[in-house]
Amino acid sequence: MRFYQATRFLFPRSFQLRVFTVCFGAVHLPLIAFCLTQIVLGAWDWRLFLPLLGATLIGTAAAIAGLSAFLAPIAHATALLRSVQLGERIPSVPSGGEDLVGALLTGVANAAAETALRIDRLADAADRDMLTGLRNRRGFMDAIAPLLRGDRNSVVAMIDLDHFKDINDRFGHDRGDQVLREFGARLVSGLRRSDLAARWGGEEFAILLPDTELDEAEEILNRMRTTLQAGAFGATRNDPVTFSCGLAIARDHASLSAALRSADAALYEAKRTGRDRVTRLA
After folding, report:
1. In sequence order, which ranges of the chain are alpha helices (DSSP H)?
2. Contact 147/243 with Cβ under 8 angstroms?
3. What is the pLDDT of residue 248?
4. 266 alpha-carbon distance from chain centroid
5. Is residue 213 annotated as a catalytic residue, yes or no?
6. pLDDT tens digits, 34-54
7. CATH homologous superfamily for 137-280?
8. What is the dihedral of CA 161, 166, 169, 170, to 10 degrees?
9. Are residues 84 and 115 in contact, defined by beta-carbon separation less than 8 angstroms?
10. Residue 234: exposed, middle, or buried by beta-carbon count in 10 A (0-12, 13-18, 19+)?
11. Which of 97, 161, 194, 202 is deepest in the core (most CB within 10 A)?
12. pTM, rounded to two decimals
């Protein structure tokens, strides 16, 4: 490090040029010694000087080309590390040998892999509800955007567990969390593979049923509601959990906000008229 620091005055912004300068001086040292010797002896011989000069220039060009090739992996690794620092995904890192450059490339590859894994985990954590494993509101909104197409109907469903506060009050929040986790699992198992489910917040869930008409969506949700009751799912077998649901049509992303409001209004109507039902507004 001392020599590196001491030579920083030579091209302080270019490590490559500093290496070339040192090598240039080393390659030309024999030529300089020859010239000084000829001057001191007073016996200049062009027949010796010209071949020596030619060999020195050829050696210099070969050394510069070779050093450029040797330094290329270091420059490449530096660029990759900069990408890692910026959180960007990088392509596969070329493997090196067991020398210094190989160790550097291996270090970059490990750092890139760990960073990519960390980014994936952070992105997944940002889009997932930690309790149920379903998408959260942000993840739901991001995921459904490309699925909404103006040429086909999709249905948004808003679901709310009935009397969930009573479960927390009677059995505690741990049991309430267990109910939410189990309901999330049953929700996913009762939907089609193309449908998207999310925990909207609290005991409220949201579903997008792409390429679906209201009648079909109502049938799917009612079947799920009936299955849930038959499974005696709840805080106790004598207190099965039920849910209320509101449905609305969403044709494209521009109409999504209005569809969510309509589904929420339909959910409120389902609650108002007795709960444990699927409602759609005219």
Report:
1. 2-6, 15-41, 46-85, 100-127, 137-144, 164-171, 173-190, 214-230, 256-272
2. no
3. 95
4. 36
5. no
6. 777 777 777 777 777 777 777
7. Reverse transcriptase/Diguanylate cyclase domain (3.30.70.270)
8. -110
9. yes
10. buried
11. 161
12. 0.61
CB of 158 closer than 8 Å to CB of 206: yes
| pLDDT higher at 189 or 231 | 189
Please identify which of the residues 88, 114, 182, 203 carries the catalytic annotation: 203
Label residue 220 exposed, middle or buried (CB < 10 Å: 0-12, 13-18, 19+): buried
Q: Quick one: pLDDT band at residue 8, thresholds 50, 70, 90?
A: low
The angle subtended at Cα 67 by Cα 62 and Cα 71, nearest 5°, is 155
Structure confidence at residue 220 (pLDDT) = 94
Find tokens 């050394």 and name the residue: 63
Q: Residue 152 has which token pair?
A: 């086909």
Where in the chain are all domains bearing CATH 3.30.70.270? 137-280
At 215, list the tokens: 């009648």
- Res. 120 pLDDT band, cuts 50 70 90: low
Torsion of CA 112, 117, 118, 119, to 10 degrees: 90
CA dihedral 122, 128, 129, 134 (to 10 degrees): -150
